[in-house]
Amino acid sequence: MAEREEPGAPEGSLISHLLELRDRLLYAVIAIAVVFGALLPFTSNVYTLVAKPLMNVLPVGATMIATEVASPFLTPIKLTLAVAVVITIPVLLYQLWAFVAPGLYRHERRLVLPLLVSSTVLFYGGMAFAYFVVFPMAFGFFVHALPPGVTMMTDIRFYLDFVFSMFFAFGISFEVPVAVVLLARMGVINPETLAGKRPYVILWAFIVAAVLTPPDIFSQFFLAIPMIILFEIGLFVARRMKRAADAAVNSGRRDLTDEEIEAEFKKNDQAFTGTDKGRGRKK
Fold it and tell me: By the 8 A CB rule, do 215 and 162 touch?
């Protein structure tokens, strides 16, 4: 993996960066296409799996409907493509990492890679939480709240749009600890200051949950509470990182700045080059 260029070194040409970006995008598209092709024969199974939380709570004899002529054919295919993108998120993030890594310092790479892994795990965790916990509760509430004589007949396209918007909302919301740690690491926020604003964080968690979830207390509660817990986890990690950094400073050690790291690399390279030249002269 290429090192970050030294200050004053010639920048890579725009064409080379565009070619690298093209290759990474091509690898990402290929990964999605491969997974989509593997899932294509199972579009009905994928649709059944995603529709299961609603179908399990519908009254006997009730089904979903299709209000457009092409919906029964196109909707499962679009759903399968969306599932393929979700499955290939680790590959997509790796391609992003591989594209930006040559422009990062070594200590930045050590931070970014764990963040990418934790972000992926938390995003999948948010989706799983929505599927297994929130959907059964929310759909059960909607079905039992039907007025007498009214039958729920949900259009499959609207249902899938709703489900994936909820998947996205919960997946992004579960990234709270990553955001807290990253902002603390960058020095944008102080963990102790943020801890003092905990009541405001709790209030905003419920406001965000009210905006992102359906208008029922259960789904709002099940989004706000995990966000608060994840915030506390991120705050705990950020505090430990700050204590470790403070201890390093108090003991006379500290993290090198980017300029100091580059100067150290340059000095080592010059020493190594000089040694090689000296050996050449001796020969």
Answer: no
**Spatial distance between the Cα atoms of 144 and 58, rounded to a whole number of angstroms:** 9
Contact between 205 and 221 (Cβ < 8 Å): no
Other C-beta atoms closer than 10 Å to the C-beta of 201 total 17
Residues paired with residue 231 on neighbouring β-strands, in sequence order:
none
Lowest mean pLDDT among 94-108, 117-131, 207-221, 234-248: 94-108
> Cα–Cα distance between 190 and 184 in angstroms, integer?
6
Positive or negative torsion for Cα 230, 234, 237, 243: negative
What does the alpha-carbon distance between residue 182 and residue 7 come to, in Å, rounded to a whole number? 26
C-alpha–C-alpha distance, residues 174 and 223, integer Å: 9
Using CA atoms, how far apart are residues 92 and 125, in angstroms rounded to an integer? Answer: 18
Do the Cβ atoms of 181 and 237 come closer than 8 Å? yes
DSSP letter (8 states) at residue 9: S
Q: Are 224 and 205 in contact (CB under 8 A)?
A: yes
Residue in this structure with the two tokens 């955001």, named with its chain if needed: 179
Nearest 5°: the CA angle 45, 50, 55 is: 95
What are the pLDDT digits (tens) for 48-81?
Answer: 898 898 888 887 777 888 888 888 888 889 889 9
Q: How far apart are CA 219 and CA 173, in angstroms?
A: 13
pTM of the predicted structure, to 2 decimals: 0.73
Calculate the CA 110 to chain-centre distance: 18
For residue 114, how far is the Cα from the chain centroid? 12
CB 273, CB 17: distance < 8 Å: no
Q: Which of 102, 98, 78 lies closest to 90 in space, CA to CA?
A: 98
